[in-house]
Amino acid sequence: MGKSTYSTLKDPCLPDLPAEKSYEEIITILKGFYKPKVLEVAETYRFHQAVPTESESVAQYANKLKHLAVHCNFGTYLTRALRDQFVGGVRSRSTRKKLLSEDRTFDQAVKVAQADELAERRIERIASQCGKNGNHTSPQYIKQEEISFQRRGCKQGKTF
Q1: What total number of domains does the chain contain?
Q2: Which positions ≥6 away from 80 have C-beta within 8 Å?
Q3: Which of 43, 87, 102, 105 has the fewest CB atoms within 10 Å, i.e. the most exposed one?
Q4: Residue 74 within a domain
Q5: At the top level of its lineage, which domain of life is listed (predicted)?
Q6: Residue 135: what pLDDT?
Q7: pLDDT, greater one: 158 or 61
Q8: Phi then psi dihedrals of residue 83, to 5 deg
Q9: What percent of the chain has pLDDT over 90?
Q10: Is the same domain home to 51 and 100?
Q11: More confident residue, 156 or 89
Q12: 78 lies in which domain range?
């Protein structure tokens, strides 16, 4: 037994010395020290407090919830607990509205949120490209074009 293991073992064995304990007793003491008992209430609390970070994707958040649920002892309630916590933690208001509009399983909710996340990324990419090339889809530009078109149409004797 190494020096650090012995010093770890010394206090829990008091008033006896580690040498006076059986192998099984030493293993039990060390397991208790290195792998403390998981408190279900604490793990469940952590699960219910989980929210996605700003940089976390939908898939990463779903996986984090699965990982946090391992020691919660949800039993048959697991998929419902995952779904409910997932829906409550979704950052996008429009996605949450969609998820609350009908009953879905956890997996279905994740797929819907991933599809929305992908669509949002595509919209941002397109918007950034339009910004580089001159944005002709902005509301101000469209309104100006409508007014300009209507004026041209009226000058030519056309009504709309």
Answers
A1: 2
A2: 106
A3: 102
A4: yes
A5: Eukaryota
A6: 53
A7: 61
A8: -60, -50
A9: 51
A10: yes
A11: 89
A12: 40-127
Distance separating alpha carbons of residues 38 and 143, to the nearest angstrom: 62
Averaged pLDDT for residues 18-37:
78
Residue with tokens 């879905």: 104
**150 falls within a domain:** no
- Which two tokens mark 132? 């580089």
pLDDT at residue 18 greater than cutoff 50: yes
Whole-number Å distance between alpha carbons of 59 and 116: 12
Whether 58 and 119 map to the same domain: the answer is: yes
Answer yes or no: do 62 and 120 share one domain.
yes
Residues 77 and 105 in one domain: yes
Give the contacts of 74 (CB within 8 A, at least 6 positions apart): 81
Average pLDDT over every residue of 74-92: 96
- 74, with CB counted inside 10 A (0-12, 13-18, 19+), is middle
DSSP assignment letter at 20: G
Q: Which residue is associated with the tokens 């293991």?
A: 5
The amino acid that residue 11 corresponds to is D
Assess if residue 3 is contained within a domain: no
Q: Within this chain, do residues 13 and 53 fall inside the same structural domain, yes or no? A: no
Clarify whether residues 21 and 86 are in a common domain: no
SS3 84: helix
